[in-house]
Amino acid sequence: MYNDEIIQLIGGINDFIGKLDQMLHPMGDRWFRVKDPCLVFTREDTAAKRMTTVVSRMTGPDNKAYRKFVDVYIPANDPMEIRVLDKSGQLCEVYNQEIDRAAPTNIVIPQMGFRSN
């Protein structure tokens, strides 16, 4: 149904853009696999006074933190929306740029400290 299409899956805990796997999912009915996923979220740009849509690939150092798919369960009573991206559209262009972007080689996580008053 969605062969060779890039879709946006909207309505769960996270929104994803990627390619919907057409094979039967190993976990069974109502499970779906999104290949080459990117998280989609909005953030407030206070300087421009507007909301900005962010497309972010799920990676880690040298692309080794996550596998190149995400499995999503859609309960029968939970509304979900699947949008097919226009291949000549801006969102599809941003997605392709994000997928092709080189992954970082180092991720530095500062130590978390506790402060007591």
Flag low-confidence runs. none
Compute the number of strand runs.
6
Binned strand content = 35-45%
- Rg over CA atoms, rounded to whole Å, is 17 Å
Please state the second-level CATH architecture.
Roll
Helix/strand structural class: mainly beta
**How far apart are the first and last residues' alpha carbons, in Å?**
58 Å
Count helical runs.
1
The SSE order reads: EEEEEEH
What number is the mean pLDDT?
Answer: 83
| Helical amount | under 10%
Shape: globular
- Would you state the CATH class? Mainly Beta
User: The biggest beta sheet, please?
Assistant: 6 strands, antiparallel
* Total domain modules: 1
Q: What name does CATH use for the topology?
A: SH3 type barrels
Can you describe what's shown?
With 117 residues, the chain is mainly β. The chain has one domain (7-100): Roll (SH3 type barrels), CATH 2.30.30. Helix content is 9%, strand content 36%. It has one helix and six strands; from the N terminus they run ββββββα. Strands 1, 2, 3, 4, 5 and 6 form a six-stranded antiparallel sheet that branches. It is globular and about 40 Å long. The model has no long low-confidence stretch (mean pLDDT 83).
Which key phrases capture this entry?
single chain; 117 residues; mainly beta; SH3 type barrels
Task: Give a short overview.
With 117 residues, the protein is mainly beta.
Protein topology:
Elements: E1 7-10, E2 15-20, E3 31-45, E4 50-57, E5 69-73, E6 81-84, H1 90-100
Antiparallel strand pairs: 1-2, 1-6, 2-3, 3-4, 3-5
